[in-house]
Amino acid sequence: MLRIVLNALRTGVVTTRYPWEPSVPPDRFRGAPVFRAGSRLPPPSVCPTGAISERFDEQGRHVGLDLARCVFCGRCAEHPWQEAVTVGRDFELAARARDDLRIEVVADAPVAAAAPPASDSSADLSAVAVAEAEAGVKAEIRSVLGRSLHLRHLDAGSCNACDWELTALLNPVYDVRRLGIDFVASPRHADGVAITGPVTRNLETAVHRTFEAIPDPRLVIAVGACAASGGMVGEGYASAGGVDRVLPVDVYIPGCPPRPEAIIFGILVALGRLDARRALRTS
Ligand code: SF4
Description:
Blueprint: H1 2-11, E1 33-35, E2 52-57, E3 60-66, E4 85-87, E5 102-107, H2 120-144, E6 149-155, H3 161-168, E7 181-183, E8 192-196, H4 204-213, E9 219-223, H5 225-229, E10 251-253, H6 260-282
Parallel strand pairs: 6-7, 6-8, 8-9, 9-10
Antiparallel strand pairs: 1-4, 2-3, 3-5
Iron/sulfur cluster binds near residues 51 and 52.
């Protein structure tokens, strides 16, 4: 017993301070790719999930990136496109609208002129603006997390990677219960559902029935590339594709799988949506 207590004291607090403090992913972490406008960007055939698209008009070649489809494999940032694409480290990518995850840049065009270097006074101003923005975000998080949220987790046909990340939310490192967030066994006790995987035809009915069992207003959170877009699986005889093919989705969380902080961020985005829906229903 004494040894256990000593070990606990030696280990100290392991729980992350995210979202109150920024989280720094490990060096090997691969986030969303960043496309440099005006450079030689890769063709759609490079991407194994169809996340890259292109179109042409009088401005030149436009290259699109669908973050909901991207599995962050980094293939588009390999030779010979390493100058045009960098593997980013951003994981706070969750969006309420599918279109917000679509990015487009003009390739092979002159690069926009760089902004002039900021003077000392403007640097001070921007520092104040950043501090104010951070304070605003923290206040928003506090107001949003002022009450608890109960989610039902539903695997609609995933490979289990996203499910492991969701499970990690309950371990001592991420411990989402400290934020008033918990997972429940029954959809009837839930405020929403976090769905992983593409919606397989076998589980399509279960997805509908789970959604119907959750009291309204209810949230639908699509966790990971497969749930957000169909991902590597896409649509076919065995898969309906992304969750939004069968249910109205409130928040899309990109990633393959999204790291736990990315899911926490997505839930925060979702909580904002829940407030808006409740206001709508009571107005
Ligand atoms: S990182 Fe991989 S999945 Fe994402 S756009 Fe590039 S090639 Fe496609």
